[in-house]
Amino acid sequence: MFDRLDDLLRRFEEIMNELAEPGVTDNQQHFRELMKEQSDLTPLVEAYKEYKKCKQDVEDSLAMLDEESDEEMREMLKEELSASRKRIEELENELKILLLPKDPNDDKNVIVEIRAGAGGDEAALFAAEIYRMYVHYAETRRWKVETIDMEEIGIGGMKSVTFMISGQGAYSIMKYESGVHRVQRVPETESGGRIHTSTITVAVMPEAEEVDIQIDEKDIRIDVCRSSGAGGQCVNTTDSAVRLTHIPTGIVIYSQTEKSQIQNKAKAYALLRTKLYDLEQQKAHDAEAELRKSQVGTGDRSEKIRTYNFPQGRVTDHRINLTLYKLDKIMNGDIQEIVDACIAADQAAKLLKMGES
Question: Taking the complete model, does pTM exceed 0.85, yes or no?
């Protein structure tokens, strides 16, 4: 581990020297790559430098203890020694986590699809609430949210909604939301006061760029229709909505949220690229089934990951056995505690796997 850290420290110093050279910005592409590498290495380098300093502090304290006869000074040195040793332990764990292989998609924007499952209108209402939960959460992180497609029902629910979240590290956080979300509550239409269970499915996909996926135009059928109203029929007067059909896979994409056909087409292509990229990722994941089992949030999308129980005001994440009694806050976008717990569990599982191999 320490040989690798020394290599990364040397690489960081090389980057800093190169960035200080005159004319480094002449090649913008290379300059951006250097800046990204520097940004990625900075947390690791800072932790390693602190680790080395703490190690030196331990050696200095031990040497001084050997020479010091004053009891008060010896007690002070022992306290410093204990604090440095504790910090070394913390930094060793931090460095192990920082050295874990990074998901290449972590820095990407995401496209999220929410679909109402079992439960009819109640599932559609819950889908709309979860959509709003993510929008509020994105706002707290200053991420941008753009709706690509939405199929609403008259009572304020959504049969489905597809939207993009753009922002630093969006996928690294949102990927833990993929799966089946279950709601337990008494619907407003239920006169007997019985609790109903409904489900929705959330799919979080890293946004694919053109370099990730090449689309052959011969494989695409493009249909243009009028933007649909609440009932799902084409009712507006402009032919701005776009439907793309990818013939080899049968994937169909609708985009109708923009007034311009060109903008809707661009959004539809972005979503199609992402879906095709996601298909490739799923195949790769299936080939590494054991790896998937060891990680949190990269499991099967049919897996039930979370229950929102309204009568008890609780939310339970089944993957990590976490239960929180602050449902109102969570539904208003306060999901950071769940996200942090998922990340910690994922890192712990990866560290364990690394220790076994």
Answer: no
